[in-house]
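Appendix B, example 12.
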Amino acid sequence: MTRFMRLFICLIFGFTVALPALAQDVAQSSDFKNRFLTALEDDPDTNTVDAVATGPYFGSYPPQIYSIIEELRREHAQLLDDKDIRATLTKLQNEHALTGVRFIAEWALAGTEKFERDSIAINKTRNYCSAEDVGAKDLPALPDHVRDLLAPQQEELFMDLEGVSTRKTRPLTKVDIHAERLSEGWLTGYGQGSFGLHYIPDDEARPTQPLIPGDIHAILPTPCDKTFYVFSTYDWPNRRRQCNVPLVIWKIREKAPGSFVISTYRKLPDRFGSVSQMENGDLFLFFGGPTRTGCYGAGMPIERPAYSNNPPIGFSRDGRIYAVCDGPLE
């Protein structure tokens, strides 16, 4: 066998061995592309996280979109040239309500291991606005008789000069109360004191049922019957730690009187400041100060150069988030 024939056979053999590996790489890349695009097309703003309604939450941004873009950037960099993926990343970079998602999308598009820009640099290019700018107003107040009915009670111990003690209760009148009427009771949330969300039945013989811990800032009905979005933060006694707690949105459905299905729906940025309601019923979520938490650097970025707070976020009754200062939801 001549040297030329041996070389030819080696080339053929090498080609036939390498072909399955190449095909496997192509198939894996195709599978990842489809998974990536499907995850974003199903609901590009949904960042569902598994959580239990009994504890604190850390970090500003949820893992779903962030992690899949990070996987793309680190493990499938060859797909960054794909036009469909680049178009999806560009849309996220330019339109997503969360600066953290814009940041990771922009980093992936840059195709570099190190990225000089940060969230503050991105925020400096974003639009900020106030509740007044979009016509948002305070959430509707409860009627006085409903507020009196649902107000949390504080128990106090009194002792007279003879050492006889008596216990009395009084309503806490300075606590924000959010409530929605159900068939046999009230879904009730309290905005201060970590009193949380409760189901308060009409039948006083039945106990109040705790549902979600922390401070409740709003309850928004969805288009579906007996289904609501609940906005909460976990109230740390240490206010500096409170600044690092994100705004968590829960989805809660009453499947029978006093029986509920609860799941986390989204986790939004930290430094939550306030919530108000626009004329179309959407919520206007403001991040920054002045806030009751007294977070460092609170204030509108127009008034300070740091731009560390996420721009306000709009939230619709059908569960969509959007960059409200960029314009109304289409």
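Residues 3-42 form the longest helix (40 residues). The first strand starts at residue 153 and ends at 159.
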